[in-house]
Structures are given as structure tokens and as C-alpha cells.
Amino acid sequence: MQTSVRILDTIPVTHNVRHYRLERPKGYRFAPGQATEVSIDRDGWQDRKRPFTFTSLPDADVLEFTIKSYFDHPGVTNELWSLGAGDKLILRDVWGTIQYRGPGTFIAGGAGVTPFIAILRQLNASGKIAGNRLVVSNRTEQDIILRDEFEAMEGLEVIWTVTGDAKSRLLQERIDADFIRAHVTRLDQNFYLCGPDEMVSDLRGLLEDAGADVANVTWEK
């Protein structure tokens, strides 16, 4: 399936991240954590597909994506930054394996937090957020996506760590074996991972080496 939808508005999140809110096609359904391939409905861009995760709740009247733009090369996310209300995007079939399986620890690198947004929003809205933890690594505090929203979710434990912000009062630790030993005290829980491929691969190995059951680790396959 392929459908063209209008952008209703764009909302700044960080210096390089925006919410893109779109009209919702009738019957278009997704589960929190799922994604679709998106193209810009503009000459020369229709066939340039990129995967983006839905960050709106599944019963919302509009669709939302929370997208980081990379300005260092002329790709899709850079072009998206130039769009606004009335411009169109092309959506395709829904897919994705990151879905909630029960309380656990969500670990993300940078924009890898986006598949967790709708999941945690839904848990918060339904009063089921308690018992979950969010761990996110960013380069600087200014790169943190939806910090205020996550910190306001009562019952969600949040750990921010930064790797290139010497003035920050947040943790300044890489998510490595030492981090896992220091901050993950329970290995008999669900783990949800998203970020750069190398980071996710390393984390899967670190968790397994520490004693976690690989059957309880969810990532985008």
C-alpha cells in the first residue's frame, strides 16, 4: 500500500529534531513501536525511502513522526527540514518488531529513542508505566529528545548519559560493560534496544555476557 498525506504542522523538539504531524488515512493502523517507509512527495524524492517510527498514540486522529535531520549531507532528513504545512509525504505498509512485551529497561542511543516514544506514551496514558526504565545516551544535553515529557511520566525511571558534554551534570558514561554492571541490577527482565546497529549488537552481547536471557531482548531485526 502507498498513500500520499498532507503535513498538518511541524513542531520543534530540539535543534535538529521535529515532530511532523500528518493527516491520517482512513483505516491506517499501527501498533506502538512500529514504523513505515516514508518518502517526500516531491519530484526527485518519491522513490527515496527512509524508515520512520510512529510516535503518536495508535488511536490519535493524526499521525506523528519525530524525526532527526542530518544537515551534513543532502539526504531525506535534510530535505524534510524544509517542509511545512501543506507539503506531502508518501507512507507505505506498517512494519516493525519493537513491541511491548512487559515491564523492562529501554536502552537507546540518540534518535534510537523514537520507537519507544509511542510505547511509553501509551503505557503512561493507561497508567501502566510503573516498573519501566528508560536509559538514553546522547552526545550533549541539547540532543536529548523529549526530556521534559519523559521525566514527567510518574513511575518511569529515567537515566540520561552524555558522551561529549563536559559541562553537563548528567552522567558522562558510555553504555558499555561497566555501565551495565553499575546500572542494570536485574537481568531477569525485558530489554528493549534501539540505536546505531553497532551499538545494538554490542549491547546484545553485553547483556548476554552479563547473564540476561536473549529471549527477553527486543530490537529491530
Automatic annotation (TrEMBL):
Transmembrane segments: none annotated. GO terms for molecular function: oxidoreductase activity. This is FAD-binding FR-type domain-containing protein. It comes from Devosia lucknowensis. It holds the Pfam family NAD_binding_1. PROSITE patterns: FAD_FR. Residues 1-101 form the FAD-binding FR-type domain. It comes from the Bacteria. Gene3D superfamilies: Nucleotide-binding domain of ferredoxin-NADP reductase (FNR) module, Translation factors.
